[in-house]
Amino acid sequence: MGSATREALVSSKQVLDATGSVDLAVASELFQVGRAVGGSLQLRSLLTDPSTPDDTKRAIVERVFAQTGDTTRSLVTSLVSARWSSHDDLLEGIEELALRASAVATGDQASIASELFEFGRVVSSDAELELALASKLGRPEAKAALVEQLLNGKASPATVTIISSLVQQPRGRRIGELLRHAARVVADQRGQTVATVTSATPLGDAQLERLRSALSGSYGRDLTINEVVDRSLVGGLRIQVADDVIDGSISSRLGELRRQLAG
């Protein structure tokens, strides 16, 4: 990710935070805009070309996305007025803004992040379901309908909107990767970081709270914990926070010992 894109993402978040009224319809429209931009190379080129005047970009947004609401068009205009390092980075920016808007619209980011994590875990354990959602041969609309059928009444409307939108435009990413990224963005909108804690046996509530408190102190911000039980670890914990991995599992130590003996 180039510096221009990083600055554009920060700017887009500031614009969203300053926007008075954002509901789930806005988030859904932003995802629709992302699919439209992703499906047109000409449109992406015009909107990311630094030589295209801002007035021209604004006129393109007003014309192409006339069916969306004023708030959505205003947010998209602010996005395309920024500089992006590549065409794909603009798509990433639209997706991130849609994710953040989904979180703002509901106000319960922790619940959304947890539901995204749980659905990702279900998909990863069901090869048939993962294939149905990830196959390049499947119609995007059919994938969205499948998600809505599976989650109807079982997850928040924001979670359903996010997942059904992401499976329609994965941009080369696996479902698990999509959902983990979405959970991180949603948590970040609330000023939190997601920590994935893997253990051989389930941890108690008191243990999880002590761990959350310790990690929050180390990282200087509140954390939400997603717990994974993996019997192959034998004992100990594996903790992942963003790109940081703390591996204190017995299986890891045994693997390191085997490598030392073999070397």
Automatic annotation (TrEMBL):
Pfam families: OSCP (PF00213). InterPro entries: ATPase_OSCP/dsu. GO terms for molecular function: hydrolase activity; proton-transporting ATP synthase activity, rotational mechanism. Keywords: ATP synthesis, Cell membrane, CF(1), Hydrogen ion transport, Hydrolase, Ion transport, Membrane, Transport. It is a peripheral membrane protein. GO terms for cellular component: plasma membrane; proton-transporting ATP synthase complex. It is found in: Cell membrane; Membrane. It comes from the Bacteria. F(1)F(0) ATP synthase produces ATP from ADP in the presence of a proton or sodium gradient. F-type ATPases consist of two structural domains, F(1) containing the extramembraneous catalytic core and F(0) containing the membrane proton channel, linked together by a central stalk and a peripheral stalk. During catalysis, ATP synthesis in the catalytic domain of F(1) is coupled via a rotary mechanism of the central stalk subunits to proton translocation. This protein is part of the stalk that links CF(0) to CF(1). It either transmits conformational changes from CF(0) to CF(1) or is implicated in proton conduction. Belongs to the ATPase delta chain family. This is ATP synthase subunit delta. It comes from Labedella gwakjiensis.
